[in-house]
């Protein structure tokens, strides 16, 4: 029988990081749907970076923590 990578206890431990990931996905969807600050490239890049970079880093941290647990 194949061993599961993430068991039930590990999934419960990483749930605390899944909630902020969900919140970041919500704001990412808002940025995609509304696009209210278009016009300045600097503001566009900063607003996308402030959502995408934490999402990627938190996702990576969550995965690495789950592997370590």
Low-confidence sequence ranges = none
The multimeric state of the shown protein is: single chain
Number of helices: 2
How many domains comprise the coordinates? Answer: 1
Task: Tell me the major beta sheet.
Answer: none
Structural class category = mainly alpha
How do the helices and strands follow one another from N- to C-terminus? Answer: HH
Provide the helix percentage.
Answer: over 70%
What average pLDDT do the residues reach?
Answer: 83
- Count of beta strands: 0
Shape: elongated
Percent strand equals under 5%
Distance between the termini: 21 Å
The radius of gyration computed from the alpha-carbon positions, rounded to a whole number of angstroms, is: 16 Å
Show the helix and strand layout.
Blueprint: H1 8-34, H2 41-68
Helix pairs in contact: 1-2
Describe this protein's structure.
- The chain is an all-alpha fold and about 70 residues long.
- The chain has one domain (about 10-69).
- Helices cover about 80% and strands about 0% of the residues.
- The protein contains 2 helices and no strands.
- Helix 1 packs antiparallel against helix 2 (about 40-69).
- It is elongated.
- The model has no long low-confidence stretch (mean pLDDT about 85).
């Amino acid at each position: 029988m194949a061993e599961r990578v993430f068991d039930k206890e590990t999934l419960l431990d990483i749930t605390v990081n899944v909630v902020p990931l969900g919140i970041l996905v919500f704001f990412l969807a808002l940025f995609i749907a509304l696009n209210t600050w278009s016009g300045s490239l600097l503001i566009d890049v900063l607003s996308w970076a402030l959502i995408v970079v934490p999402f990627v880093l938190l996702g990576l941290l969550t995965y690495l923590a789950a592997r370590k647990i």
